[in-house]
TrEMBL record:
SUPFAM superfamilies reported in the protein's UniProt record: UDP-Glycosyltransferase/glycogen phosphorylase (SSF53756)
Signal sequence coordinates: none
EC numbers: 2.4.-.-
Highest taxon, organism lineage: Bacteria
Keywords: Glycosyltransferase, Transferase
UniProt protein name: Glycosyltransferase
GO molecular function: glycosyltransferase activity
Residues of the Glycosyl transferase family domain: 278-431
Cited InterPro entries: Glyco_trans_1
């Protein structure tokens, strides 16, 4: 074993769920897991979503190299959690056709029945097996709280819990057993539970995928606050850039182990790249949501086309709530084309000359490095943590002032008018930048981070009892000191009384 090897033990990636089409966080999680598995360390990707989506053919390829996706409720259906004597009685099953009861299906199979309350939110849930039997029944008792009961195929109770976190913990315990284990939690939704899950042989690392910045300088956005208040409960917290790590350090102080691990990007062989003459388009690959501001890219392209600028088409790949609005915004401009989701982002990037990234915030901007690997020059708003860390303006891409559509259009114009020699040199520098994020380099970095986090966890396990004993001793000394102080004050009062009598 060398220092570059991943540490021995069970390796897990923990997230809420895998939605399709999946975005940057899931892409990074799966590529990291593939990278570990291809280096000889299998990874189980664990999901807690009660409605897992059917997995596509790419997951068969991941399974072939050692990446297995496992869902909590599928695990309970299969009997992964051992029975317990504390099992409570089985609640009455929910029935189809009853007012307020709906049935959720995945792939045509009923996976759960839900009774909705007056506010439209789930009150009672039955998680079902394929044969219709109840795997887990969730109820809200009249006195408040929650009751979860796991059942066998005959309907008999086998285990019960008062919180979902307890169910999650028992499932992880059944997978980890007594082995040395490493859990990397990617989802901010799951992170509060992960911070609570402490086991003697489990090293827990949280990866922060998004920007933490709140609406005012020095603030943390609301969705991050529950975790940022307790980062020290993780054995390590990883960011994609040094800049974000430094900013968070200034916010939370010295105690948490904060580190930097970027995301790996696969190289694109030069032989598969198209001829320069064929690379004339601009491309956007993003969720069509407000945070991505794809409308700015559309407006910049329309501005160029109105001004009879360079013949640059804009190809937009992605889906989201703004799709119809953006299509209407580009209406009448045949050089702006919407393609929906793509399963081949690398091919789309290799075919384009420039990538436009107009996000409001990024933690890394994985698509920037993917573009660079394909020799596609990025043009991005100068925002924290992504573009500002990766792009050297005018050398391997362009940075433009945040929100400045005119500057964005001018950068597209400048890229189109570069000489072939200058453009080739910039593409070469972009590809060289992407090489810094090779799987081999990032895997070595992860090996170092996991070993450091493991040592920290072991050290804390040894020192915590000593710290507790030291605190108890300090409190005892403080109590004795207070007692002595009280006695001293009493003696002083008596002495003063005697002095007064002798006058």
């Amino acid at each position: 074993m060398t220092a570059h090897d991943l540490p021995a033990g069970r390796h897990f990636a923990l997230t809420w769920g895998i939605a399709t089409p999946y975005g940057g966080m899931t892409t990074a999680l799966l590529e990291r897991s593939r990278m570990f598995a291809e280096a000889g360390t299998p990874v189980d990707v664990l999901t807690l979503d009660p409605r897992p989506v059917p997995l596509g053919p790419e997951f068969a390829e991941l399974a072939a190299v050692g990446v297995r996706v496992r869902n909590l409720y599928d695990g309970v259906r299969a009997g992964d959690i051992p029975p317990s004597s504390n099992a409570r009685s089985v609640p009455e099953a929910l029935r189809d056709g009853v007012d307020g009861v709906i049935t959720d299906e995945v792939g045509g199979v009923a996976v759960r029945r839900v009774r909705l309350g007056d506010d439209g939110r789930p009150v009672d849930i039955d998680h079902l097996r394929a044969d219709g039997s109840i795997a887990v029944a969730e109820r809200r008792p009249p006195g408040g709280g929650r009751l979860l009961v796991a059942c066998d195929r005959t309907g008999a109770p086998v285990r019960s819990w008062r919180r979902r976190y307890d169910l999650y913990s028992d499932w992880l315990d059944s997978l980890v057993r007594d082995d040395e284990a490493f859990i990397i939690v990617d989802s901010k939704t799951v992170a509060p539970f992960a911070a609570d899950y402490r086991r003697p042989r489990v090293t827990m690392v949280h990866v922060i995928h998004g920007s933490h910045r709140g609406p005012t300088p020095g603030s943390v956005r609301a969705s991050r606050q529950p975790v940022f208040s307790r980062l020290d409960d993780f054995d390590a917290v990883a960011f994609a850039t040094d800049a974000q790590r430094r900013d968070v350090r200034a916010l939370v102080g010295s105690r948490p182990l904060l580190t930097t691990v970027a995301h790996p990007v696969a190289p694109v062989p030069a032989a598969v790249l198209p001829a320069e003459a064929d690379r004339t388009s601009a491309v956007v690959i993003a969720r069509l949501e407000p945070i991505k501001r794809v409308g700015d890219a559309v407006d910049a392209a329309r501005k160029l086309h109105r001004e009879a600028g360079p013949a640059v088409t804009l190809d937009v790949y992605g889906t989201g709530s703004r799709a119809d609005e953006l299509a209407a915004r580009a209406s009448g401009d045949p050089a702006i084309r919407f393609h929906g989701h793509t399963d081949d982002p690398a091919g789309a990037l290799a075919a384009a000359s420039v990538l436009l990234l107009t996000s409001r915030s990024e933690a890394f901007g994985l698509v920037l490095v993917e573009a660079m690997a394909a020799g596609c020059l990025p043009i991005a708003y100068d925002i924290a943590y992504g573009p500002a860390d990766l792009i050297r303006d005018g050398e391997n891409g362009w940075l433009v002032p945040d929100g400045d559509v005119d500057a964005l259009a001018e950068a597209i114009r400048a890229a189109a008018r570069l000489s072939p020699e200058r453009r080739a040199a910039m593409r070469a520098r972009a590809r060289a930048t992407a090489e810094e994020y090779s799987a081999d380099r990032i895997r070595r970095r992860w090996a170092s981070v996991l070993r450091t986090a493991q040592r920290r966890r072991r050290l804390q396990r040894r020192t915590r009892p000593l710290l507790r004993e030291a605190r108890r001793a300090a409190r005892a000394v403080l109590r004795r000191a207070r007692t002595v102080a009280r006695r001293a004050r009493a003696l002083v009062r008596r002495a003063r009384a005697l002095v007064r009598r002798t006058r």
